[in-house]
Amino acid sequence: MPETHLLPLALAMLGFVGGHFLLSYPPLRSALIARLGEKPFQAIYSTLSLAFLVWAVTAYGQAPSLTLWDLEPFGRYLALAVMPLAMILVVAGLLSRNPTAVGGERLVGSEQAVAGIVTVTRHPFLWGVGLWSLVHLLANGDAASLILFGGMAVLSFGGMAAIDHKRSVALGATWQTLAGRTSRLPFLAVLQGRTRIDWAGIGWWRPALGLAAYAVLLQVHGWLFGMAAID
Fold first, then answer.
1. Is 47 exposed, middle or buried (0-12, 13-18, 19+ CB in 10 A)?
2. Cα 83 vs. chain centroid, distance in angstroms?
3. Alpha carbon 97 to chain centroid distance?
4. Which of 135, 170, 177, 218 has the most CB atoms within 10 Å of its CB?
5. Helices marked H in the chain — which ranges?
6. What does the entry list under GO cellular component (predicted)?
7. Residue 67's beta-bridge partner residues?
8. Can you tell me the distance from the alpha carbon of 140 to that of 60, in angstroms, rounded to the nearest whole number?
């Protein structure tokens, strides 16, 4: 049955997404770090995540095409419209100091914590990945994409809530002060008057680099993924 060929993909995504949430669970994470040490734990965490991701991508390429819905051409146009913003958020998130990133808790309580892209959303990278996942899920409309991109969306949006909760528990009032000046939802803190966009901190080159990455992806999409992003 075709459904059985989706099992490797489902198992890979279960390992990738579930592994992130499981190994980030504070009691388990603390126990493993105490036993293994911080650096060995991070090495194991990263290796397992990469292995499951490679397995998922490989399984996705081998999965059968089982159409669940067809939103063409709307789905493709939606992806083309949203992906520039997604790439800007990904690039800005990766190339900015962020109190929600790994090791970023040391920034909480400093003025550097609320600067740059963090004034738009305190989870820029995860929002970029989440938007990428959702528009590709809608545009493709097949069972394998539902598993792969749906899993990535769960990890992205669920990860935001999990990170906020862990920071709140660990940092208490200091985190609450930062959360009051920022927002999980992009631009919400700005619209509510709790902060102002730090255009200078974002800079011109981060959005430019994000758009350049988007332009490159448009050109190599067919070569990398077997389907051209534009005809």
1. exposed
2. 13
3. 16
4. 135
5. 7-23, 26-36, 38-62, 74-94, 124-140, 143-171, 173-181, 188-191, 199-202, 205-225
6. membrane
7. 142
8. 12
